[in-house]
Every structure is written in structure tokens, then in C-alpha cells.
Write a structure and sequence with these properties.
2 domains, Expansin/allergen_DPBB_dom, mainly beta, cell wall biogenesis/degradation, cell wall, six-stranded mixed beta barrel
């Protein structure tokens, strides 16, 4: 039987071991039941949140970057173009339900929750290594557009990297949610485009914008006084995180100690601190993005923090 160049890709995620996650790309026939989709879908929702808004400020310093086998799309609009007006060439597939957000659990290899809900609103994508960057590309934003297929609108749409895909389709490969893939189509041609298989697209890095939201910290399940895991979300600008540092407070007066300790990247956009002694809150967090800009959320996590809760700062990247 001849092999058709129609593919079904699936970005699979696990919140326990992100390094084991792979996006599977499997060839299918032409019976029309699965075209670039596992038709799985998901019904997850965002976790309950508890906000504690406290002060903070920001300042910039140099930050390391992660090397990749291909040139990495730089923050905002600083790309070297292989097309016009800063656009780069890529290929795109899609996975999950046709009108879904990708992963069945509405999560992904970055650790974000409820990506079917605002502000992600299912406009999400896996990125291959030059885009995902071993997790440090999580949360980055890209404009995508397609022109080659008759169903393409040519209109740019913005997607957020929430998952990973290592299948070598192209030097730059976006494995989009069904919603995001269909959004590139002309009106009423969404399904026609989703049935097209692998398509050529153009993309460019753009600043993320979360109007009305501040940088937010989700304390992961399993966290305890000796192990603190924090998911960082909703960063304007670069949208990604390359380093998180933690400052404890004095047990005597609850004031910040003035000492920053680096957290380690756990997986995706989740950072952790492991200690032999109980950590002393409230905690301040310092977040550094890919451009080297730094934001400080002073005592954003209270002393009586609880796992699976969300704590919002009052600070945001400009």
C-alpha cells in the first residue's frame, strides 16, 4: 500500500516526567477519519485559585540562553528572515480534537493548566526544539499564517507554546491545536484546511500580551515545606522564563532575608526548590525572561501557602 503524506500528530504530556513526553506523528490512510488529529479532545478546566497580591519591582540583568540545533527565533521581532517582513518558514500539523486545545487534559509539556480556557483560549501549539527550547520556550508567542493552500486566509493568528514536539518534520515545526490550525483558514473552510495534512506556514516571534493579568505563580501538587514547585504564568513580552530565584523570610519578623537562592527547572515552566530543612515563607520570587529582563514579586507567596493554589503578583513585564 502506498504511503500517503497525510499525518496524524499527537503531542502527549505528563505532569510527572516531561522529559519522557514525545509528540507522535503516525501515517494514516485517506478514509477521512483522522487527518492530523487524534480526535481525542479533553474536558479539563483550570484549577481553583487563591490570589495574594503583594508588591514588587523589576530590573534587568544578563541571562543565559539555551543552544539549539537550529537558529532560535529571538524575542519579539528580532528574527533573521527567510521570507518577507521578518517571517520565517515552517511546517504545521495539528493534534487533538478538531476544535480543541491539543492535549486531552488541556495541559501539555509546559505544565500550564486549562489551556482551553482564557487567556490561552485553545490557541496553543507544540514547538520542536528550536521553539520549545527544552522548556525554556514555554509561554512564548508567535504569529502564524498560511498562504499556499486554497483554504488558507493568509491572515496572521497568534499562538502560545504550551507543549513540545520532537518529530523531524522541518527545522521549524508547529504542531498546533485543532483550533489554532483551523484559525488560519478562510471563513467556513476550517475543516477543509484541517484535512490538508502537513502544510507550509510562515511564523515570527511576537510579544505576549495578557491585558489585565499579572505574573502568576501556581504551587504544584506535592509541594511541601522541603519541596516547593512553582509554575510561572502570564508574562507579557517574551512570555518565557529562563531563571527563577527564591528569597525566604526571617522566622523572627517575617521580613525578607535579602538572600536569593536559584530554583532549578523541573520541567516546562515549572521551577523547584529542594531543601533538607523547611522553607520559611513568605516567599519572594525573581523571574528572568529570555531577553534578560528581571521582575521581582515581593513576598508573593504567603507563609501559609497551600499546594494547588494560585498566587498572583501585582507586577508585570513591560
Amino acid at each position: 500500500m502506498a504511503v500517503l503524506w497525510w499525518w496524524s500528530s499527537s503531542c502527549l504530556s505528563s505532569r510527572a516526567v516531561a522529559a519522557a513526553l514525545l509528540c507522535l506523528l503516525v501515517a494514516h490512510g485517506s478514509d477521512g477519519t483522522r487527518h492530523n488529529s487524534n480526535n481525542g479532545g479533553g474536558s479539563g478546566s483550570s484549577s481553583s485559585s487563591k490570589s495574594h497580591k503583594q508588591g514588587g519591582g523589576g530590573r534587568a540583568h544578563a541571562a543565559p540562553t539555551t543552544p539549539s540545533p537550529y537558529p532560535s527565533p529571538s524575542p519579539a521581532a528580532g528574527n533573521n528572515s527567510s521570507s518577507d517582513d521578518g517571517w520565517l518558514n515552517a511546517r504545521a500539523t495539528w493534534y487533538g480534537a478538531p476544535n480543541g486545545a491539543g492535549p486531552d487534559d488541556n495541559g501539555g509539556a509546559c505544565g500550564f493548566k486549562g489551556v482551553n480556557m482564557p487567556p490561552f483560549s485553545a490557541m496553543t501549539s507544540c514547538g520542536n526544539e528550536p521553539i520549545f527550547k527544552d522548556g525554556k520556550g514555554c509561554g512564548s508567542c508567535y504569529q502564524i499564517r498560511c498562504k499556499a493552500h486554497p483554504a488558507c486566509s493568509g491572515v496572521a493568528e497568534t499562538v502560545i507554546i504550551t507543549d513540545m514536539n520532537y518529530y523531524p518534520v522541518a527545522p521549524y515545526h508547529f504542531d498546533l491545536s485543532g483550533t489554532a490550525f483551523g484559525a488560519m483558514a478562510k471563513d467556513e473552510h476550517n475543516d477543509e484546511l484541517r484535512h490538508a495534512g502537513i502544510i507550509d506556514i510562515q511564523f515570527k516571534r511576537v510579544p505576549c500580551q495578557y491585558p489585565g493579568l499579572t505574573v502568576t505563580f501556581h504551587i504544584e501538587r506535592g509541594s511541601n515545606p522541603n519541596y516547593l514547585a512553582v509554575l510561572v504564568e502570564y508574562e507579557n513580552g517574551d512570555g518565557d522564563v529562563v531563571q527563577v530565584d527564591l528569597m525566604e523570610s526571617s522566622p523572627d519578623d517575617g521580613e525578607p532575608t535579602g538572600v536569593w537562592e536559584p530554583m532549578r527547572e523541573s520541567w516546562g515552566s515549572i521551577w523547584r526548590m529542594d531543601t533538607r530543612r523547611p522553607l520559611q515563607g513568605p516567599f519572594s520570587l525573581r523571574v528572568t525572561n529570555e531577553s534578560g529582563k528581571t521582575l521581582v514579586a515581593d513576598q508573593v507567596i504567603p507563609a501559609d501557602w497551600q499546594p494547588d493554589n494560585v498566587y498572583s503578583s501585582i507586577v508585570q513585564f513591560e
